[in-house]
Amino acid sequence: MDRKNHDTAATPKGSANIILENGISENRSPWDVGGSGSGPKADPPSGPGNDDSRGGKKGGNPWEPVSIDGGKARGKDRGPSLEELLRRAGGGGKGGGGWSGLPKRADGKSYWPWIAIGFIAIWLGWTSIHRMEPAESGVITQFGKYHRTVGSGIHFTAPAPMQRLQKVDTGQVRTITIGSLVSESENLILTSDQNVINMAYNVRWQVSNPARFLFQLDAPEETVSEVAESAMRASVANFSLNDAIGPRRSNIQADVQKRMQAILNSYRSGVQIKAIDIQQSAAPEEVSEAFRAVNAAKQQREGYLNEARKYARQVTEQALGETAEFDKIYEQYRLAPEVTKRRMYYETMEEVLSQVDKTIVESGNVTPFLPLPEIKRRVDAANAARDVQVQGKK
User: Fold this and answer.
1) What's the whole-model pTM score?
2) In whole angstroms, what is the distance from residue 118 CA to residue 296 CA?
3) Domain ranges in the chain?
4) Rg of the Cα atoms in the chain
5) What pLDDT score does 311 carry?
6) Fewer CB within 10 A of the end CB, N or C, for the chain?
7) Fold (CATH) for 175-283
8) Rounded mean pLDDT of 48-67?
9) What is the DSSP code string of 274-341?
């Protein structure tokens, strides 16, 4: 068989046997215009019936890109075919690019199926198994919509993006500080008597409903802070300056907590106010010296009042004791008047005469009274003088 017949016989069905100018035949697909050989490329026949609507020629590859001038793109203008891209991705090229650099199993198959299975298992475990701490709550959403709330422990959900779990710390008591004890900026609030007071306080709050906390408030901490300022101003407006500075601070704290909780409940915020702690309530800096003097005078006045109340209580208690004693003596006097009078006379004289050094005794058949206290005093004086002399000689 000659070369021409051999080439014709080897031509597959559906291919065209093209004879090049050098006598070498080349098998081409009806869709392959350029061919795979290195020889010159044959253009499709031209004619009035081969021109297409784009100004090009029919009979060529319909998937081949067309240049701007209506002709076929050649050289660098032509991109790789789909088969070539798949071959490169699969590592089928001669250079061994793509995935061909991975080692193969003993049976010659690739590890990529197992790697894909491993990635899927990690993705399922990472997005489906959740461990919650005792102080945490988990809010589960299904396709972005609230589904349920879970507590502490191990919980399972559908993998993302079907279901997602968001953790919320419900055991932590959070603190927001409004105003400052050291900064130059003042938090001035108007009182009921048209005075201005500088206040600094802490707001302690906690998440009570995780779902509402996540979906009802856009900025929870800012909302709590603004509600606290509003409630504090509304509450202080009902108290005078003196009350706000000292004696009724606890009443203000309780009133602010009540107001804040009512407002946040109306917002469906899922926030619970634990306490309000007023750190400072003082007059503005411009009048602080005058207020210090006023407070010092008030404290001094309170001190004097406390001493007067103490003395009044002592006198009252003493009077009550004497009254009770008089009542007892009167009961005894009613039973024996003469004996009681004589006993009272003797007790009174003994109390009076015990404080004097002289005793007057009437003349008559009465033995004179010896001045024993005076004698004792003289003896003591003589002994003291003798001791002084002895110490001086030593």
Assistant:
1) 0.46
2) 77
3) 1-62, 126-169, 175-283, 355-393
4) 56
5) 95
6) C
7) Tetrahydropterin Synthase; Chain A (3.30.479)
8) 49
9) EEEEEEEEE--GGGHHHHHHHHHHHHHHHHHHHHHHHHHHHHHHHHHHHHHHHHHHHHHHHH-HHHHH
